[in-house]
Structures are given as structure tokens and as C-alpha cells.
Predict the structure.
Amino acid sequence: MSTVKDTIIKNLCYTDLVYKRINNKLNTNFSNGKIEKYILKILHETDDNSFSKIGKNFYVSNVENDVRITINSNTFRVITVDKISLV
């Protein structure tokens, strides 16, 4: 049985602009390939219960890495990655 997590991982895609957006938001200077590997690593490590769909987007929250990934639920394009802080 395919889960939401499996479907996202299988269909994940990126736009040229999102790489720059991710580097800006995370304050990094990763190559496109390193960003893709980083996001896949986080998706694989994140528990299925941390995947939620709100409106037209999936939100994947990974507390261990302090990030939330936003993915379009129709195209499976990564929209952004935000730092989360638990204050």
C-alpha cells in the first residue's frame, strides 16, 4: 500500500527558483544536487504522522532537523523549506 510519504518521494520535483529560495531560507549555499539529497533524506527520516495536507499543499515537519518542507499537492513541486523553532 502506497502512503502519502511514498507518493511524495516518488513524484518530487523542483523549479529553478526554489533552489535559491531554499538556500536563502536556510542560510546555506548548497548546490542543486545537495539540496535534493538533503530534502530526500529529511523526507525518508520523517515519520508518516508528520506529513499533513492543508489546502493545496503538503507540509512535512521534521523537528530533529528543525525544518518544514512545503510541497504542492497537485504537482509535487517543492515550494519552500522553512526553519522551525520550538520556543
